[in-house]
Amino acid sequence: MIKACLFDLDGVVVDTAVYHYKAWKKLANSLGFDFTEVQNEELKGVSRMDSLKKILAWGGVSKSGEEMNALATQKNEWYVDMIQQIKPGEELPGAKEFLQKIREAGYKTALGSASKNAGIILNNLGITNLFDAIIDGNSVTHSKPDPEVFLKGAEAVGVQPNESVVFEDAVAGIEAAIAGGMYSVGIGQPEVLTKADIVVPGLYDMSIEKLKSLEKISK
Question: Which keywords does the record carry (predicted)?
Fold first, then answer.
């Protein structure tokens, strides 16, 4: 029986990808090369440091560990400045409504995000109170597809992994759900999120009925 819903943040609850892209592009440009939106897609669900390693490799740039820490900090400062623009009502369509609906139905909710700024974003949106637990990049040591962030989310709300549903827009996130023995709902394109139990275009297309239909799948 499903008892909890675990949500990724970017691309599921809110679209901050554009801010990540702008901040990474600014960093790449400062190092003398460009960074494309196509490359940015490959960073979905990937930690900040792992993202930086990928970008430096794309640009053919080598940096020491100390220099990489400074670059990651700089990118984050630009990103945090940008996300201060986020206001209540900027959630992705249906996200707030679905969160309210499942909480009223008695489901536990947790956030499972690689972002270290998840708290800032939820506060700016005014929806922190819709989550029973927040597990973010400050709470985990392994990036998706490692299931750590979701396993900690299930533990935080007192349910077993096989009583949890993960909502994810990234392939790495779906793989993390599978690795954790959890149900998965892909947010996006079925041809991309092929391993998800079901795929919907957005939380506006989710319902309690669809949530319950997952229970027919054995985990």
Answer: Isomerase, Magnesium, Metal-binding
